[in-house]
Amino acid sequence: MTAQTLKKQNGHKISHGSSHIKKEEHAALAKQMKLFSIAKKMNKSGLSDSFIVNAVRVALEFDGVADLMSLWAEETEKKEREEIIADIQDMIEACEQKDKHEEMYIKFNDLEAIARDIRAFKDTLYQEVMKRGGINKLSELTGIPQPSLSRFFNSNAMPRRSTLLLIARALDLNGLPIDVKWSK
């Protein structure tokens, strides 16, 4: 055993030669370890377990999410960290939607009416959320980070069905009307 000297430490054999591990395998392991380290920091910061698990799962497949997680770990400003979390959540949802590809067309002349409908829908839903404990409570119930929920309610963007369903389930809103014309 010249190239691979084995040493016992805490009852486990440790190989000091990495010739049996290919460079790409080593890089993949290093990436996983880095992500798990960031996940521990995210956990300590109070992010939900489901968000962290989904972020790591997607980051292992998509470097963009891994890069965002690294940016989050290096960032010191709370506001910037919240924006990064919201971006990670958006990417998680986009990755979940990649297998559910549906063709849907919206007429250009309908855009203004749809935007008004979306804003009215989100305002009504927001009032319901506030009656039931607010954004922080909704974040706890859904596992969606608070910054993502704030972005959701403050934007006029079309909501994703998956987000709407999580909110509806968390608030036990059985009759939540999701308009297929504008929800993606």
TrEMBL record:
Residues 1-21 are annotated as: Disordered. Residues 138-183 form the HTH cro/C1-type domain. GO terms for molecular function: DNA binding. This is HTH cro/C1-type domain-containing protein.
